[in-house]
Design a protein that fits this description.
Radius of gyration: 19 Å
Structural class: mainly alpha
Number of domains: 1
Number of helices: 7
Helix content: 40-55%
Shape: elongated
Order of helices and strands: EHHHHHHEH
Distance between the termini: 47 Å
């Protein structure tokens, strides 16, 4: 992912779920994990909970990104203890990982803030001009 992020302006974002399940967030998580691996940071141990294939070369094949995104979505709605007690979530218990989760959320947020974000909305200028011409 580059330093610049283009967001589709034709989509109306009306819920956390749309944002959390977007391709942009998945790409951001991939970039974050690559950076952790390159720096061999201690926070990387948290993500071993989400390993699906240690031998894979690509980040999206090595880690279960869907589970990481589901965890973020769950955290936007419930407390960690409630998530751990719920039979609806299939990811590992998180109660003893609170500090690591806070670091992850803060750092991924900071990574997002450091991006140049632009929303692009495509409009049909011909159609607009045609409608204006017909009104006359």
């Amino acid at each position: 992912m580059s330093r610049t992020v283009l967001i589709d302006g034709s989509v109306s974002y009306s819920s956390n779920a749309q944002i959390i399940h977007s391709k942009i967030l998945k790409d951001l998580v991939i970039e974050f994990l690559k950076d952790l691996e390159e720096r061999n940071e201690s926070l990387l141990t948290f993500f071993t909970l989400f390993l699906k294939n240690e031998d894979a070369v690509e980040i999206d094949e090595r880690y279960d990104l869907d589970q990481i995104v589901k965890m973020l979505f769950a955290l936007s709605a419930e407390k960690i203890d409630e998530i751990d007690a719920s039979p609806f979530y299939s990811f590992p218990k998180l109660s003893d990982k609170k500090e690591q989760i806070v670091k992850f959320v803060e750092r991924i947020y900071n990574l997002w803030r450091n991006k140049h974000r632009f929303m692009i909305q495509k409009i049909n200028l011909f159609l607009m001009a045609f409608k204006k011409y017909i009104k006359k």
